[in-house]
Amino acid sequence: MMQALLHQILSGLANGGIYASVALALVMIYQSTHHVNFAQGEMAMFSTYIAWALIQAGLPYWLAFFLTLGFSFAAGVAIERIVLRPVANAPVLSVVVVFIGLLVILNSLAGWIFSYMIKSFPSPFPSDAWYGSPYLSPHEVGMIAVTLAVLTLVFGFFRFTPLGLAMRAAAQNPASARLVGIRVGWMLAFGWGLAGAIGAVAGMMAAPTLYLDPNMMTGVVLYGFAAALLGGIDNAWGAAAGGFIVGVAENLAGAYLVGTELKLTVALAIIVGVLVVRPAGLFGRTLIVRV
Amino acid sequence: MKPTLLRSLGLSLLLALALAVPFVASGYQIFQATMVLVYAIALFGLNILTGYNGQISLGHGAFYAIGAYSAAILIDHQIVPDWATVPIAGAICLVVGYLFGRPAARLAGLYLALATFALAVATPQILKYRGFEHWTGGSQGIILDKPDPPAFLPIDADQWLYLCCLAVTLVLFVLGRNLLRGRIGRALLAIRDHPIAAASMGIDTARYKAMTFGVSAAYTGIAGALGTFAAAFASPDSFDAFLSLRFLVGIVVGGLGSISGAFFGAAFIEFVPNLADRISKAAPWAIYGVLLILVIYLMPSGVAGLIRAMTQKINRDKETIREET
Fold first, then answer.
1. Which residues in chain A have their CB less than 8 angstroms from residue B122's CB?
2. What ipTM, to 2 d.p.?
3. Which positions 215-244 of A are in contact with B (Cβ < 8 Å)?
């Protein structure tokens, strides 16, 4: 009984790592533009297809992995510069509609280029590796390790590098940042690039268990969105923590409350319930508005 | 000519055209026109909530589904006559929308977007749930007959349905317009533009927000019921989360906070997918996405926003000419 519970919690943490990565990607764009990128999941899905194509072409896994990261970064920058720049000053909902447009374009293109057939995607972590255990498969252990590595790299980047500092400045105070010579527009584009690369990691880690198809990320991005809001979308640590919480909550709801049929529904109901009680998220700051 | 006279002339002309549609168009075209009316009602409902009251909903597909299933179940089990299902579906959605809106009034912006989107994602799952299969038909859904026209009218079922939808549309739009032009409408705008100031003026914001949610859901639910009649079919997969996103696309393309915008938006979500399909059979949704983004580039505040800006410009030009002479 206890072992089953422990197993559910640990594999929830493994899934949570994916949600944490997606949440982090969402926060990356949200902090600088105050938009939630609804196309994040489809961008990650498309990146995963690129990785699949590279592996099919005979490249070793990790080379394909890093080439995909590079591609996703470039694609993120390109999308910001080409698609979103023209609507920089449009009303919020118009930008949301542009995201929806982007979502259907990527989804449809992936189906057209790679077909809607479900594909299996390899895991870089061999199934008989020494770090496997009855509680967690090697892939799950690897997923958690990769997520933690991504989180560490991202925080290190923003904390210790000049470029990270410039990006934070551009996000917090664009006008002053521009005055000290930071190219704010390019910082936004880099933010999109980073979000694209982080999303690609999430996609490549999720694909071995979810299998690759154009709608692979729909549920994942919803959980990632929920995780970002649950942890507080103005707070990257919170968003990552939110990802792990959502992962565990989802698994426990599926195992003990209802079957897999209504898992998504129940998990979302719980999250919304928490938000009604704490509207700023678990770790978010409550904004006090002066009138 | 006076602007008001011009306006009522234009509206009568449009109404005459709308009445002529079922007698000149072919069967499938009548179905499409019916769906435009249905979507216009749904979009008007969403626009009351999002455009006028500032509460974003990514889950109105759920209310559309509730309306559709209410009507379908009532007809399938022959509980009430066909015509009575539409107001009942509206009433059910009014209550459900109010109950959902009451706690949701605490959530703003993105949080509300998540809560409503969760509703949209949950809807097909709940409709497929085995426990309700006796009523909902599970993933098979419910197949219906189109309502028969009264015997004394020489028209077929499609034409009759179109005319019924047109009548419902007119009633709902006149009611909605009066609601938005009056005291309640001003309260909704005040809550949208400055919630704190609205509250200090004595507007019960939580109650108004929840009521708006209810009314908005009722409009969309009525549209759902009519849509089921038109499609003669209700199944969980026709009410997926993408339907909710299409509604949002509709109100933004049509124009937020505008009544006529509902029709432009409805025409967009009904016809543009077909157009995209004709351009490219292989990746129609990619074409749809490109068209959608282009429309937003050209008209960031929607068709109605563009028309508004153009009429303002014309009026200003007229004034300048008058001043110069």
1. 264-265, 268-269
2. 0.86
3. 218, 222, 225-226, 229, 233
